[in-house]
Structures
1.
Amino acid sequence: MFINKDQNFMKAKLLTCLITLFFMATITRSQVVQTVPHVDLKKYAGKWYEIASYPNRFQKGCHCTTATYSLSDKGYVIVENRCNRDSINGKLSYIQGKAFIVKNSENAKLKVQFFWPFRGDYWIIDLARDYSYAVVSDPSKKYLWILNRKPKMNDNTFQNILAKLKEKGFDLAKLKLTIQEI
């Protein structure tokens, strides 16, 4: 059997494509957003201060951003987000919503709804053992929030969180610190 140059070229091209696809699949698999194994919602409930986040249109101009979570007797989580618009002394902005637990997620994945019928992914991807900080994202990595129980976070803790986020493939250049009043 004779093989001409065109056949060798096509085989090399096919092999290159297969190798490229293999490496892309490997990179994609390693960058999949993973949640924490379990969240105790009673411990998670309460007030959280936003330390940093990816900017998004619905929080434009927000300062002193907080989120308060409480458990409803109907099986969902009540979400109350607050911020001061355009400055730390700006007009208070407030919105209340509901978060529904995703089945078989050990409470680490929720669907948050502020406007019916729209729901967004809220995945807890890092959480301190003592529930002093949490990191929240979504499967697409479009959103990211670093939350803390106090308005200021210990710098070592913050740097450790950033290192873990970098390992997980998050773009730290997009992260914006949130101004909190003290």
2.
Amino acid sequence: MVLLDITMPGLMGLDALKQLSLENPKLPILVLSMHPEEQYAIRVLKAGASGYLTKAAAPEQLIGAIRKVSRGGRYVSAALAEKLALGLQVGATGLPHENLSDREYQVLCLISSGKTVKEIAEELSLSEKTISTYRTRILEKMDMKSNAELTHYGIKHDLVD
């Protein structure tokens, strides 16, 4: 079993998760993160994680999650289970940021936190042109026109650390 954080220097945790899942699809992976469930839980489950837990969880909850995942089960909190169940209702629509790719979502979070294209490019080891392309796609997919709108959205939906 792997206990993985998705915020790591030099490597995007979602990329590491996908790589681990590809190399060993049966490997149970529990993601333990400082990020609220609303930010990453569904995304990491889709990427191959067996469970998601925030670092704010009680120690007993962490122990229970580790036991469940190591035995081949899945772990989500009661709050996330309810959100997932509500998403299955007829007519339920997801939020615009849920339709972004993992990298687009990461760039959205960084823009929302006030970082410039240059700063984001340096942090992700990508070119400024690549980040600008991601920004353009994000604006199109979310039907927005400026970084200010993206920042407002990110703050409103708790996407900023």
3.
Amino acid sequence: MIRYSQIAIIGCGLIGGSLALAFRSHGMVDRIVGVDLDEEGLAKALALGIIDEGKTCIEEAAAEADLIILAVPVQQTIRQLATLKSVPLKKGCIVTDVSSTKQEICGYARMNLPEEIVFVGGHPMAGSEKSGVTAASPRLFENAAYILTPDASCDPLAVEKLRRTFEQIRAHVLVMPADQHDSVVAAISHMPHVVAALLVDQVADLGFDNPLYARLAAGGFRDVTRIASGSPVMWRDIILTNRGPVLQLLKDWVKRTDAVIKWVEENESGSIESFFARTRDWRDALPAKAKGAATHYYEITIDVEDKPGIIGHVATILGQHQINVRNIGILENREEVNGQLLLSFSSYRDQEDALYLLLGHGYKVYVRE
């Protein structure tokens, strides 16, 4: 079992606080020191028992740490690495970060940090619609992909120690080069955010003088654009530190949009139908063949009436029969009458048992392929 005497977490927000709670809940650390300029946030972290000591200065916290985690936005990560250059760290100390882009940060670390400082880039692909240390959870990283991006000069023993560290908090660790990481997340995370923001921007302009757009913007529109509610500052930094892959994808997006424009202008019904069929088939295959980098889930949807207590009733039925639900979601595909619950399970057996149990209670239930 991996265990640390002292961990320094720079940035006591959702991710930093959740890592602290996860390490503590798994008995992996004796002492956690949190660093943040927000003294109110530090006080909350102390009051909640997330950290043992709070500081506003990284130098003091880092000097005695066995593991230093930079849980701050991308640009702040680089500034903190610049500060660490002159801090005498303990022998064997590992430094890592949690940023969504890796090439710029890893490149800076490689070119600027002394050889004795071991830096391994990291990116936990986990989050929450809530922010701040009060939203921290020890289970945030369970079954989530946690990517490490060491370069060729990284000590393999340090990389292995860090891999085992995050596996102990039940994350699924993947190791890959920084450039490969940035190309993949640009397509599956950064580009979708840009597209969602563009859709919101378009509808916002259309609805400037017509309140019907805002009134009817529910169901599919809300589902597709949910991620546009993220932090503007954070996403500005993410896009600008991953310019190459994002620009390449944006230019490809323009080409694909031009093709759709041509099909519509020239009434090419076959091309349009083939486009929707191809994209539907690939998307529908994801749950069965590629349910994310972390794990495979088995899902069902349930038609439910929109009334108080309905989610609790469904959960109680399953709980009484020892069926573990990994996640519950609400699909807003209908307005004001009925809706659908999305339930995720870790095993085919749980999915099947839940299906027949809920059918027996009169619910309309569908397997999500």
